[in-house]
Amino acid sequence: MPRKVNLVEEIDRTKQSWKLAIRVTNVWRSENFVDMIFMDEKGGKIQASLKEADLRKLNVVLEEGYTYSIKNLEVKENTGEYKLCNNLYKVGFMKGTHVQQCDFPQIP
What we know:
Layout: E1 19-30, E2 33-39, E3 45-51, H1 52-57, E4 67-77, E5 89-101
Parallel strand pairs: 3-5
Antiparallel strand pairs: 1-2, 1-4, 2-3, 4-5
């Protein structure tokens, strides 16, 4: 049975087996890091941060405006000095993260 798609508002640190259907609304690259804003179908937003090298290892390109299915994310407290969105948490990619570009027209 396929895993349920979660909304951003459901994300917390209780597990890492989240499955999101998101649109990448913004991407910033700086000194070997990539920061992005993910938005779900209800407009919920969460920051995603990872090293450029880790993104290359996943062999995926995430582009602004495109929609993706993403499974198995690392959830961290959003305690950084520069928060890109108002959310208690942010997500990162790990070895078991799976990303697939999909068409989700319901995501604004």
